[in-house]
Write a structure and sequence with these properties.
One of its GO terms (cellular component) is cytosol. It is found in: Cytoplasm. It holds the Pfam family LPG_synthase_C. By secondary structure, the chain is an alpha+beta fold. It has four domains: 126 residues, Nucleic acid-binding proteins (OB fold (Dihydrolipoamide Acetyltransferase, E2P)), CATH 2.40.50; 302 residues, BirA Bifunctional Protein, domain 2; 209 residues, no CATH class; 128 residues, Gcn5-related N-acetyltransferase (GNAT) (Aminopeptidase), CATH 3.40.630. Helices cover 31% and strands 20% of the residues. It contains 28 helices and 29 strands. It is globular, with a radius of gyration of 35 Å.
Length: 1038
């Protein structure tokens, strides 16, 4: 209920003002009593006051009045997905519409939920049909609420029936077309399309030329061409006409498939159902565009298009794509342009794929024209680096990356095991380069991997990057090194802009920027002078003080200096010389005239360093003195020192970060875009530990049919109840409700429960499988829910691991206003709380005794009947909003339930707790905690603390009381900027007004902690229809 209210008020456009200050807090009744509130989303509120129920998600999420049994007639046994009813695992189930709640209308109540529903036109037009209308189960005319729900059930059943009919029709049509094609087409017509078997590349070699579409021009019109490409995009125009956009790397061309001659209607039907990103082999004829404009605007090749005559699949897409390359090509400018249109509608615009989602699905992102452009330019940088240095008399070397000691002092290193002893990954080729100069190589360079174990999660740092390093002997002045480097950089810049202009323009679509500006005479500015320039411009350090000429600059200082120099000197490229001693490593040669500075320099691009270099100390005695001063153990670098003790000429060099220069050249904003498969401190996440399962035979990692076909072996899926006990949390227990449909992964048996609601497929809770299987399971489920059920997915109340997958792999937006409220039963503060202990002693004094029924050993039938009767008493005694008896299922899944019953000496049941066993990770759930009428004070405290003690003795480390509202709005992923501020302020106001975050005293004394749950939705936003679906999903009586 709480988040339902929150959603009601958070939704833009629903501006219904409350009729009174108390609106939304409680619905006043004739007797003056206010309705008690349930917890967030109707889950456990943790209230253990008299006559309260711990209402779990399983109950209000699945009210009997809104239940619909399944009309799931999917007899489809195709691999990869399955859909089954929870209780029968049967593809068919009869509809039952006779479950309705009798509740009463409170016409005088002003409800914010009702206001939003009126705004969204939910239930509009409902009216009571009087005595001639349908009757409820008590034989009385239905109330307006019951009539509305009755009508809604009928509509849901009708929609479900329509969807099933559509699915059947599509499948029937496909089989019919295949059968007709097989019968009617000639062998020549059949050969025009189809799937090429994977092992077809060792037969007859026809030497048929495969062309590059980038080379097609108007001179080729009328020419037959054969080429391989991906389907970038396709659009069916009619039953006889399909548009394609084919892609080869950075080039795209329009293709037209029209029914004619040997191109049959069956070929068109087959082609229009191909997936984007499929690799196809096309044979066709080039023609002039048939459009009114006279050119193709939706492809990079404008003046020709291909009339497709043959089309064969070489590599099919067999897994659902989180996004297509066509979607990834959308730019921020295009999104802004669409949003600015007067006829723009919410949720109906293209979305720019977030960086995190791109990087989490790197292979797809690398297919984009932008990525191709970036890495073509990266290749060009290396090419021109080699070309220039080769022309200057350098030779290329390849140094080892496994070393016995740290390469540089002060930098973190990755330690690895090397045959039982320690070794390190090279931080740079510095030592090897200098040893080559000592070996009289004269001039050397290297392009190779560099490793830095620095926990820097910034836009400009990587833990593994590619270094472009050089070292050379010096004749007279260390600026000889600087001049070589300067010529090399200018050769790179000139070569890139001359040879890769088209790539640069492609990259500019996603990353707008101006071309680099550099001068013929590169400015060489002493470090101290640069600091003075900054200070004179009014710049201050982070503490508000002028910068020190003897201390190194920070990143923000460097960027500001770049702005100052661009303004004064008109260049993006410059050199800072004579760095202070304390800003350089131990091997930097000091200036002979000023021992506080060194013969070292940095080269900058757009205000950030791209190279660090200078003259090295080549005298062994001076080197040892420096090491001693900096407390570096010479024995750790014995081999290095020995090279100088044997005599080494004066020399210097520098190191360039390839990804850094590429990022700055193209203004990529994040160095990860410049790395093929970027490595940073968050890369290579630790794999989830596979814990001992409660039911090993119901594993999804090793399903019972492992190694064989499940259907052929006649084996059933793992029971959903056992999957909950293996992998589930409190939210997953709601999947046992009749209205929930269960999708199953054909290979693993992994499960996802969902409820079809107003055109949406709403899921609560994580997938039931091992976390390492989340991505594959979610991919299969989302493909099923969209393609086969034609529903829009919403995913509510998921944990952090599932949220991470939805956000990073599927670009979903996420936020949290809800948390599971968990306690450690083994360290229960309530055991030492004087007030709670006083209440428990009172209950004991009244003779209250607790009877335990261990896991899998439910109470006998006579005890069950007594408890059912007391539940009836509890329901009758409640005031305000009613929860129907069918919402409380104490005897559901008894295999995983533990019961604790409090009785007085005369046998009267006064309190009842049902504990639900969850996964080993999540422990237990206080499923129901009922304090019955006329129970002695302290009874509920007594039985709850006792239940916690019992599960603690069994080794449980955590117990959840269900969900509750968080104290603040917490953005997850892909929700940022103004949206966060608005939602955060709105949620704070709602939480304060509705007292959503008021914990009960009892729960506080149990030491409950919040474990955030997330609301997740696709990138087009949480529009009015989605909110309407959620409101109906969590609907209760008003």
């Amino acid at each position: 209920m709480s988040l339902k209210k929150a959603l009601t008020k958070l939704k833009p456009g629903s501006r219904s003002n409350p009729a009174s200050d108390d609106e939304g807090l409680a619905s006043p009744k004739a007797n003056g009593n206010a309705s008690p509130r349930t917890g967030i989303f109707g889950r456990a509120s943790g209230d253990f006051s008299r006559n309260s129920v711990d209402q779990k998600l399983v109950d209000p999420l699945s009210p009997a009045d809104s239940r619909t049994s399944l009309d799931q007639s999917k007899s489809d046994t195709r691999r990869g997905s399955g859909i089954f009813h929870r209780s029968t695992d049967s593809p068919t189930r009869k509809a039952s519409l006779n479950h309705h709640r009798t509740g009463s209308n409170s016409h005088g109540t002003h409800s914010p939920i009702r206001a939003v529903k009126e705004k969204l036109r939910i239930g509009a037009g409902d009216s009571s049909s009087g005595d001639d209308g349908p009757l409820n189960r008590d034989g009385e005319p239905m109330s307006r609420n019951q009539l509305r729900k009755h009508e809604k059930q009928a509509q849901q059943e009708e929609r479900k029936k329509d969807n099933l009919e559509k699915d059947k029709e599509i499948e029937r049509r496909r089989k019919e077309m295949e059968a007709q094609a097989d019968k009617e087409l000639t062998p020549e017509q059949k050969a025009k399309y189809g799937i090429i078997p994977p092992n077809s590349y060792a037969g007859e070699w026809k030497h048929e030329p495969r062309l590059n579409i980038f080379d097609f021009t108007t001179k080729d019109v009328g020419k037959e061409v054969v080429f391989r490409a991906r389907i970038h995009h396709l659009r069916k125009m009619s039953s006889k006409f399909v548009f394609f956009v084919f892609r080869q790397q950075i080039a795209t061309i329009q293709g037209i498939l029209v029914e004619h001659a040997d191109v049959s209607k069956y070929m068109l039907y087959w082609a229009e159902h191909l997936e984007a990103e499929t690799v196809v082999l096309i044979k066709g004829v080039l023609q002039e565009p048939q459009s009114k404009q006279g050119e193709v605007t939706g492809a990079t090749i404008h003046h020709v298009e291909v009339a497709v005559h043959e089309l064969h699949v070489e590599a099919a897409v067999t897994e659902h794509l989180p996004f297509t390359v066509h979607e990834a090509e959308v730019t921020q400018a295009e999104v802004d342009e669409e949003l600015a249109k007067a006829d723009h509608k919410e949720g109906q615009h293209r979305v720019k794929i977030a960086d995190r989602t791109r990087l989490s699905n790197r292979v797809i992102d690398l297919r984009t024209t932008t990525s191709h452009g970036i890495f073509r330019i990266q290749s060009g940088i290396c090419h021109f680096f080699r070309l220039q240095l080769d022309s200057e008399g350098f030779i290329e070397i390849h140094s080892p990356k496994l070393q016995g000691g740290a390469t540089e002092s002060g930098a973190s290193v990755f330690k690895v095991e090397y045959f039982g002893r320690g070794a390190f990954l090279a931080q740079s080729p510095q030592l090897a380069k200098q040893m080559c100069i000592s070996a009289d190589f004269g001039r050397v360079y290297e392009i190779g991997a560099v490793f830095r174990a620095e926990n820097s999660n910034t836009y400009r740092h990587l833990t593994e990057y590619t270094g472009l390093d050089l070292e050379m002997a010096i004749d007279e002045h260390y600026h000889e090194v600087l001049r070589v480097l300067d010529r090399t950089f200018k050769a790179i810049f000139t070569g890139i802009y001359e040879r890769h202009r088209e790539d640069i323009e492609i990259v500019k679509r996603q990353f707008p920027h101006e071309d680099l500006v550099w001068l013929d005479q590169t400015p060489i500015i002493p470090f101290a002078e640069a600091i003075r320039m900054l200070n004179e411009s009014g710049w201050k350090n982070e503490d508000g003080n002028p910068l020190d000429e003897n201390e190194d600059m920070g990143t923000r200082d460097e960027v500001q200096l770049g702005r100052v120099i661009k303004q004064k000197l008109g260049t993006d490229y410059y050199v800072l010389d004579k760095f202070p001693v304390n800003a350089r490593p131990f091997y930097a040669m000091p200036d002979p005239n000023n021992p506080t500075v060194t013969n070292s320099f940095d080269i900058f691009l757009r205000g950030q360093e791209i190279l660090s270099g200078g003259q090295r100390i080549h005298d062994a005695s001076m080197l040892l003195d420096n090491m001693k001063r900096l407390k570096i153990d010479p024995q750790s670098m014995e081999e290095y020192i020995q090279g100088f003790q044997w005599g080494a000429p004066p020399h210097g060099g520098g190191g360039i970060g390839l990804e850094r220069i590429l990022m700055l050249l193209l203004n990529l904003g994040n160095i990860r875009h410049a790395s093929l498969f970027p490595r940073d401190p968050k890369s290579l996440p630790e794999k989830a530990v596979i814990k001992q399962l409660r039911h090993p035979e119901a594993s999804t990692m090793h399903p019972p049919w492992e190694g064989q076909d499940r259907a052929a072996a006649g084996m059933e899926f793992q029971p959903i109840e056992r999957l909950i006990a293996n992998y589930g949390d409190a939210t997953n227990t709601s999947w046992l409700e009749p209205r929930t449909e269960i999708w199953r992964d054909e290979y693993t048996g992994a499960a996802v429960g969902f409820v079809p609601q107003d055109g949406f497929g709403i899921t609560v809770g994580d997938p039931l499988c091992h976390p390492s299987q989340y991505l594959k399971t979610m991919t299969g489920y989302l493909k099923y829910i969209r393609k086969e059920r034609n529903l829009k997915p919403l995913w509510l109340l998921v944990g952090s691991e599932a949220e991470e997958v939805l956000a990073t792999k599927f670009n979903w937006r996420t936020f949290s206003v809800v948390a599971e409220q968990r306690v450690d039963p083994a360290h229960n503060p309530a055991l030492n709380d004087s007030d709670i202990q006083r209440k428990i002693r009172h209950a004991e004094k009244e003779g209250v005794k607790i009877t335990d029924y261990a896991l899998g050993s439910p109470p006998p039938e006579d005890m069950k009947k007594k408890i059912d009767a007391r539940v009836e008493d509890w329901l009758k005694n409640r005031k305000g909003r009613q929860v129907h008896l069918t919402n409380i299922h104490p005897w559901q899944d008894e295999e995983h339930r533990q019961y604790h019953i409090a009785q007085t000496p005369d046998g009267t049941i006064v309190a009842f707790v049902a504990m639900a066993q969850l996964s080993p990770e999540h422990g237990w759930q206080v499923k129901y905690s009922l304090d019955f009428p006329n129970a002695p004070s302290g009874s509920i405290e007594h039985v709850v603390t006792h239940a916690l003690k019992v599960v603690a003795q069994g080794g449980a480390e955590t117990v959840t009381f269900g969900g509750g509202a968080s104290s603040k709005f917490t953005p997850g992923h892909n929700v940022k900027g103004t949206r966060v501020k608005v939602l955060s302020r709105a949620y704070h106001a709602i939480a304060t007004e509705l007292k959503l975050t008021n914990k009960t005293e009892f729960r506080e004394k149990l030491g409950a902690t919040d474990d955030p749950s997330y609301i997740c939705y696709p990138p087009h936003g949480l529009g009015p229809l989605a909110i309407k679906a959620i409101l109906n999903f969590f609907e209760d009586d008003e």
